[in-house]
Amino acid sequence: MPIRLVLAVVVCLATFSLDSQAQDPNLMLSASSAGGIVGSQEDVTILLDSSASQAFTGWSVAVCHDPAAVTLEDATIGGSVLALDPSFSQTSFYPTGFSSAVVTDFLGATALEPGPAHELNIATYTLVQEGLAEITLCDDVLGSPAVSISFGTTSILPTLVHGTIDVGTVPNLVLGIDDFVGAPSDCVEALVELDSLIDIDGFAIGVAHDDNIATLQSIVFGDVVHALNDGDGPDYSFVNVSPVGGSGGTCAALFSLSSPFEQLPAGDGVVLARFEYQVSAGASPASDTPLTFSHDLGAPPLASVITVAGETRIPVFEPGSITVDGDVIPTGAFRRGDFNTDGLIDLSDAVGLLTFLFAGGTAPTCDDSADTNDDGAIGIDDAVSVLSFSFSGGVAPPVPFDACGADPTEDALGCATFGGCP
Fold first, then answer.
1. Structural contact between residues 78 and 120, judged by C-beta atoms closer than 8 angstroms
2. Could you report the per-residue pLDDT of 178-230, keeping only the tens digit for each?
3. Residue 228 CB neighbours (<10 A)
4. Which domains are present in the chain?
5. Per-residue pLDDT tens digits for 236-262
6. Cα–Cα distance between 135 and 198 in angstroms, integer?
């Protein structure tokens, strides 16, 4: 019996019209704003401020958009709802929006407690048409019967604060990292830079990397960030070089917590943070690790965002990389003339080759290395070439000779293994 009663409440939450009901000033439902260029995908977050209200075990929301301006790609429940592991959650899609209904627990054991910024939903849109696209919290518009925005068993209609997506041909915010090169064990400083057409209030950054290639040593804010508030730096900031959720680092800064509010002015190449890595000693030459902006590092996960006028903006991301410096050792690499693979070309190689040819000695593991003169065959002339080079000033063996490499000559010989090359 209790389950049927609660389900009946959900149906009412999703269908009952509230046209005549006033919006509750103690409960605020808002859609964040975003910006990007035509063709990019941007996220809009649906947030609930219930700090002056009460706990809720059920609610329904509806969000509308203009399909000529943006295309809704997906809508999911947000982190605040996922943390409750709700007993019931349903998202419905319409040509002009989506709705979401949630019951935290059929028996009322768990609830969404009062709080200032509960993340209820995250909607992803593809930007279609240049201009200002409105993302509206639309009560009694979607579906038939129409879905109402309501909270709790008494169907409270919150104060609604709509969002927008600024769709342009030139992005307002571009967050990027360059490509860097470093030798094994080297330290590499990767700059996280912002190109911005607008002033910003703060930022949160997560950067993921492959810890087989490099390890993150430190994160330091840029000079312009340190110079805020007359040199005191941001009012709130943190860094974490080992967050849960993967290999990477996170940092965040909110420039001012009270008036007068400090901002970073618009500009190109503004260094927000420096991520210092050490290239792994055993990293292979020419291997690399992407440096990608992440939304999954930390607990709870930290999204990479920029704050503008108190609103969250998703910038255009331009990831970077660290490439390990050094020459690539090709498959089948060897050194010509180094018969015994000891890293030297000397008398012992000639003796080993002659013993193999005429006294039943050990065969080479790499035939190419025994072909000293690169004629495609192994014979006494190869031993003579080693002796001539070593003691009579003879011609050096053909490449690869002074460094490991592959055989440039097409012949019947091969190289199974060669211990003298990594």
1. yes
2. 999 999 999 999 999 999 988 999 999 999 999 999 999 999 999 999 999 99
3. 19
4. 2-168 (2.60.40.680), 173-324 (2.60.40.680), 330-422 (1.10.1330.10)
5. 999 999 999 899 999 999 999 988 889
6. 21
